């Protein structure tokens, strides 16, 4: 497999559930990102991991918990979400050097009911 | 902080007509700029990028963009639209420092009509 792979592609969860989104990159990159894409809003950067260390957390609520066990894998653990958290969650990877392009996965469409 | 403005959330063109999608940026440092395309229910795919080399950048699928520092613009063009170009297009600027974070514009939905 090549590129950036996200699983699952679709997820429906209740507000009391706990679930995890998974992202895997096969590009040899050393930085990984989580973005949130909601309708009619710009893509929002949630978390940045560089060399497996979290270097950015853009005021994301604690009900979202990222994990980066190694340079190829990134998780987003979800618990007690709200309906307004329903969105497309996109994972991306790149080299950490500024100016290099980011490669995106196909996203996980999350619906909180 | 860097920012990106995309004028026109929806653009409609006829097949074969010129495509022009506008992007203006603000940046306190020399910018790195990108155009991405997103098809329905898909992730973002890189069309082209500007990283301070040639000001006219050619990308995939016949798209190109010109960096104009005096106008702080990086507009995306394609001479002749094809039905398969219908998608959402995002302009982005790379933040300085702290890795390679991208700040995106709000996107422009391109519709191509027969």
Work out the number of β strands of chain A. Answer: 11
Task: Report the biggest beta sheet of chain B as strand number plus sense, adding barrel if it closes.
Answer: 6 strands, mixed
Number of continuous helical runs of chain B: 0
Multimerization status: heterodimer
SSE blueprint and pairings:
The complex is a heterodimer of chains A (113) and B (114).
Chain A lengths: L3 E4 L2 E4 L4 E8 L5 E7 L6 E7 L2 E5 L6 E7 L2 E7 L7 E8 L8 E2 L3 E5 L1
Parallel strand pairs in A: 2-11
Antiparallel strand pairs in A: 1-3, 3-8, 4-5, 4-9, 5-6, 7-8, 9-10, 9-11
Chain B lengths: L2 E3 L4 E5 L4 E3 L2 E3 L6 E6 L5 E7 L5 E3 L5 E5 L4 E6 L8 E8 L7 E3 L3 E6 L1
Parallel strand pairs in B: 2-12
Antiparallel strand pairs in B: 1-4, 3-9, 5-6, 5-10, 7-8, 8-9, 10-11, 10-12
Could you give a short description of this structure?
The complex is a heterodimer of chains A (113) and B (114). Chain A is mainly beta and 113 residues long.
Describe the overall structure.
The complex is a heterodimer of chains A (113) and B (114). With 113 residues, chain A is an all-beta fold. Chain A has strands at 4-7, 10-13, 18-25, 31-37, 44-50, 53-57, 64-70, 73-79, 87-94, 103-104, 108-112. Chain A is globular. The N and C termini of chain A lie far apart (33 Å). The mean pLDDT of chain A is 91. Chain B has 114 residues and is mainly β. Helices cover 0% and strands 51% of the residues of chain B. Chain B is built from no helices and twelve strands. Chain B has strands at 3-5, 10-14, 19-21, 24-26, 33-38, 44-50, 56-58, 64-68, 73-78, 87-94, 102-104, 108-113. In chain B, the strands form three sheets. In chain B, strands 2, 5, 6, 10, 11 and 12 form a six-stranded mixed sheet that branches. Chain B is globular and about 45 Å long. The interface between A and B is medium-sized, with 30 and 26 residues.
